[in-house]
Amino acid sequence: MIKSKLISRYSDISHGFFNRLGGYSSGIYKSLNCGAGSGDDKKNIKKNINKVCKQIKCNKNKLVLLSQIHSNKVYLLNKISKKRLKGDALITSKRKLALGILTADCAPIFIFDTYKNIIAAIHDGWKGAYKKIIHKTINEFKKKGSHIKDLIAVIGPCISKYRYEVKKDFLKKFLNQNQKNIRFFIFKKNKIFFSLSDYIKNQLKEAGINRIEIINKDTYLKKNNFFSARRSLNKNNYDYGRNISIIMIK
Known about the structure:
By secondary structure, the protein is of the alpha+beta class. The protein has one domain: CNF1/YfiH-like putative cysteine hydrolases. The chain has helices spanning 42-56, 126-130, 133-143, 168-177, 196-206, 229-234; strands at residues 13-17, 63-65, 74-77, 89-92, 98-103, 107-113, 118-124, 151-155, 165-166, 185-188, 191-194, 211-214, 243-249.
């Protein structure tokens, strides 16, 4: 489990970015796979989730996970929903309500209002980032009375710009959005690479957040022990485990 240096300064917040180590799953899902959408044994997934809940010290029945759809849909939570919500960001000010995000190369993001004690967990792949889920989430903070100066943000482990190869139509889409987006691309040996974390960081800065931390762990690199969709697909494995990231107000 990786902890944010920024968030760790605040004793009333429990959080962690988990990699694939220390769980019960086997095969391509080895070992801490928390993705119910994978083809893994559901019993193993349940045991894995129970284990991370114990480490976060949250009640397993108070962990909220979304049905993630690469959208900019944001939910403000005051209680546990009876059904699994479809979207990619969660916000709460309720104690003991744990917000979880599943990733396998996309970026998990935590935002925390250090004054009003409001937290958010965001699943941010290129689609959600392009649709400005960051801005929508921050607008929800503002609706709850947050001031930008009180917000801190942490971008968790995701695929690095050196592994995220994209096609020309991807580049064109981002340049059509804003020509300045060229700065988030690397051109090397007739290949194009995209920096998801830098693109997200820029959106956070555009929104006015100055206290930003990036957890520089490339999920694609096997040595870092994260599940990676792209690495799995490159090995012709068309399913893969999911890493979980959780934040909770104690």
